[in-house]
Amino acid sequence: MNISRMFRVSLFALMLLAIPASSFAGVFIQVGFAPPALPVYEQPACPGDGYIWTPGYWAYGPVGYYWVPGTWVMAPEPGFLWTPGYWGWGGGFYAWHPGYWGPHIGFYGGVNYGYGYFGHGYEGGYWSGRTFYYNRSVNNVTVTNVHIYNKTVNNMTVNRVSFNGGNGGINARPGRDEEIAARDRHIDATGVQRKHQDMARENRDLWASNNHGRPAIAATERPADFHGRVVPAKEGGPEYRQPENRGANRPENRGKENRPENRGAENRGMNRENNRDMNRGVPRPQNSERGNMDRPAEREQNNRGGRPENTARPNDRGQENRPANRVEENRRPENRVQENRAPENRPSENRGQRMDRPNNSRNDNARPHENGQRQEKQQKEDKKPH
Description:
- This protein is of the alpha+beta class.
- It has two domains: 2-266, no CATH class; 293-311 and 318-344, no CATH class.
- It is built from ten helices and 15 strands.
- The longest helix has 38 residues, at 314-351.
- The N and C termini lie far apart (127 Å).
């Protein structure tokens, strides 16, 4: 169990180090408490043709939640759009569903990220062949060498909630088009996007525990550039305080949820000690019982002529001994009969002295003959003259 626990801890440590990459590669991060509200910020100007806006979001790492600024990113290939990631409640925790590139916009939890991402689909522009057309009504496009159009989007709902489901979360489900988009060919976040998130994780001003939901850098003009044209948050949601028990709610909580196993191992160790203490006293009466029970079992076996004795249950041996004692008591009269027969056998010893008396009937017949001889002898003695 200790080896398994060390393996899980080591695996989790590697997972935390790889969070920036794994959050894009499809490895879900799970947290026990909700992320902060989305901050309010101005969109930086589009740097050029072919750049797609990727909204900012709250990521999670060893430091807790931290803000990844929104930025303009060059599409990996023409015709691809960015589907943002989102936090979704399920199974007792918030899971991160990473974003991806694809020919259609998929489901991003109904979260209103703004600037074209109003909960479903994308209103910031569209591809026509190899050319992207920007909707100036929702994007800050000031350059002249791009294709633009104006389409008003009626976004009446202003919602800064950053997660789907759970307590206070957005109640949204994927539509038919979004389910189809989920089956399209996807491309994970590009290398510059991963670098952008890595830099955000290392920036202490972007940690929610420090900025309380109002990051100093809310958006950048270009990815992984935190020293150029950056935009601070105008305002955040309610002041965010990192939960005191954040250590119990980090992704490693899944390992900590396995603590009952470790506790079970500890309990098994305690049980072993308890069992040892209990066993120290238990074998003595068992051995004495076995020793005392084996003896009558052997006597009974000898008395029964070698019949097998069932001694599987020590508790039953005491009951089995009772009939054995009864048998011995019942057999004692037989021995007494043999003792009573011993006097009858004594004449047989006298038979060895008198060989002419083979049995009792001959002894009875010989007695009158001896009396007759004695009488004749007595008569002859009487006739002799004195």
